[in-house]
Design brief:
The chain is α/β, with parallel strands linked by helices and 335 residues long. It folds into two domains: 133 residues, ornithine cyclodeaminase, domain 1; 171 residues, Rossmann fold (3-Layer(aba) Sandwich). 36% of the residues lie in helices and 24% in strands. Strand 9, helix 5 and strand 10 form a beta-alpha-beta unit. The longest helix has 20 residues. It is globular and about 65 Å long. The two termini are 16 Å apart. Bound molecules: NADPH dihydro-nicotinamide-adenine-dinucleotide phosphate (NDP). NADPH dihydro-nicotinamide-adenine-dinucleotide phosphate binds next to helix 3 and helix 4.
Length: 335
């Protein structure tokens, strides 16, 4: 069986942000229509908590596509030459179950996560939103800057993370890769002040954004925390907002940003107003006024990786990018 290998730079060429946003919208709508199968992800924590290993399978009937992401998350890699998220996405075909492709997961994760936030921003942010605050200056921050610039016309961008050196380096990367000027902010509060778009993209387990800092009408993409005990938003931010998620079942089991305020009795399950797929299909109401605060809580779904992988595969076949290896899968090949 010939299997296509797609490396990190090839993924970046084959998965442009605008095409990924369209693919993510289609995949999220398919989830809501019941056309996907995706169990909750399995997360194995290493004994010293230095890293986690997540396994995320999904079947997307609307394509059809079948696949799996296996990814390590090592937050301590920030500042090293290695991404905090490393692994592979495996793509299978659904007629005989053969493996089609193995692809770099760092780049797929970076792009598809920002693309989903872009979809959420198009659905939920005010039409004139353009004052962006990035809380966090790592891999996701740069990709979110790209997706936010495609979702809305940006007038001003401020960024903050704990290390001033990291912020400076981010300002340089934003200029070099995207040609976008970013102002370093003195703190998260200063970054968020008056912003109408806020992306929290940190590996913090404690709140980095407080509800009282948010301007009326702001839209927040809360991306960083994906464990039930970790959160980036304080309780006030979640209580104040009209809350949307990528998938209810995942949020009810994995989203500390929702689960901690619920455990405090500040909200109940009905505080989740809808999934992005429901918004896309017109099954729930999004923003209802210019002054309302909206939050999209992103956890990341395996269908996003599988839909991205299918798109990359299709584009690789057309462009000739990637390398083929003979891997196996044949009956009685050993004689
Ligand atoms: P990086 O390692 O590249 O960057 C992490 C960022 O978090 C850095 O800017 C770091 O900057 C900042 N940070 C770390 N700790 C804190 C803290 N306590 N307070 C404030 N800032 C902090 O990671 P990524 O950009 O790849 O990912 C960011 C987060 O998004 C991670 O938690 C990751 O797991 C999550 N993620 C979520 C996905 C989803 O689908 N929802 C998908 C992929 C990632 P500094 O050290 O300067 O503070």
């Amino acid at each position: 069986m010939q299997v296509l290998i797609v490396n990190q730079s090839e993924v970046s060429r084959l998965l442009p942000m605008d095409a990924c946003m369209e693919a993510m919208a289609r995949a999220l709508a398919a989830v809501t229509r019941g056309e996907a199968r995706l169990p909750l992800r399995q997360v194995l924590m290493l004994p010293d908590q230095a890293g986690a290993f997540a396994v995320m399978p999904a079947y997307l009937g609307s394509l059809p596509a079948l696949g799996l992401k296996a990814i390590t998350v090592f937050p301590g890699n920030h500042g090293t030459e290695l991404d905090s998220h490393q692994g592979a996405v495996l793509l299978f075909e659904t007629r005989r179950g053969s493996l089609r492709a193995v692809m770099d997961a760092s780049s797929i994760t970076a792009i598809r996560t920002a693309a989903v936030s872009g979809v959420a921003t198009r659905l939920l942010a005010r039409a004139d939103a353009g004052d962006l605050a990035l809380i966090g200056t790592g891999v996701q921050a740069l990709k979110h800057l790209e997706s936010m610039s495609q979702a809305r016309r940006l007038r001003r961008v401020r960024a903050w993370s704990r290390s001033a050196e990291n912020v400076r380096a981010f300002v340089g990367r934003a200029q070099r890769f995207l040609g976008i000027a970013v102002e370093p902010a003195a703190g998260a509060r200063e970054a968020a002040k008056g912003a109408d778009l806020v992306c929290t993209v940190t590996s913090s387990r404690e709140p980095v954004l407080e509800g009282e800092w948010l301007a009326p009408g702001a839209h927040v993409n809360a991306v960083g925390a994906s464990l039930p005990t970790a959160r980036e938003l304080d309780t006030a931010a979640v209580v104040r907002a009209r809350l949307f998620v990528d998938r209810r079942e995942s949020a009810l089991s994995e989203a500390g940003d929702f689960l901690v305020p619920r455990s405090e009795g500040a909200i109940d399950d009905s505080h989740i107003r809808g999934e992005l797929g429901e918004l896309l299909l017109g099954q729930c109401a999004g923003r209802r006024s210019e002054s309302e605060v909206t939050v999209f809580k992103s956890l990341g779904l395996a269908v996003e990786d599988v839909a991205s992988a299918q798109l990359i595969y299709d584009r690789a076949l057309k462009s000739g990018l990637g390398s083929w290896v003979e891997l196996g899968g044949a009956r009685d090949a050993g004689g």
